[in-house]
Design a protein that fits this description.
48% strand; four-stranded antiparallel β-sheet; 123 residues; seven-stranded mixed β-sheet; mainly beta; globular
């Protein structure tokens, strides 16, 4: 039932910033934990960040901790990923995901996935 659409990706220079958005359908957005994953060419999908349904708990991959921030606006049914100090190794397709059980790095905890948005960081 939950449908997710990512936006905000693009091409940025190393050290720059981007803000990704994930718009969710439905009236039960606040019931879901949300997360961002990413997949670079030739790499497996990896966890980036997650946030609880209440917004009170966040969880970040070590590789992005201190640079990225996940947030959500339940009134707008939207989750965000603010990405600062971007590095070329951040280049990937970024996917938004929603789950109704846990908040964390395991993709199996997430039922609904967006189509992804491309982030490319040049050096």
């Amino acid at each position: 039932q939950m449908q997710l659409v990512e936006s905000g990706g693009g091409l940025v220079q190393a050290g720059g910033s981007l803000r990704l958005s994930c718009a969710a359908s439905g009236r039960t957005f606040s019931s879901y934990a949300m997360a961002w994953f990413r997949q670079a060419p030739g790499k497996e999908r990896e966890f980036v960040a997650a946030i609880s349904w209440s917004g009170g708990t966040t969880y970040y991959a070590d590789s992005v901790k201190g640079r990225f921030k996940i947030s959500r606006d339940n009134a707008k049914s939207t989750v965000y990923l603010q990405m600062n100090s971007l590095k070329p190794e951040d280049t990937a397709v970024y996917y938004c995901a929603a789950g109704n059980l846990r908040v964390g790095p395991d993709p199996n905890d997430y039922t609904w996935w967006g189509q992804g948005t491309q982030v490319t960081v040049s050096s």
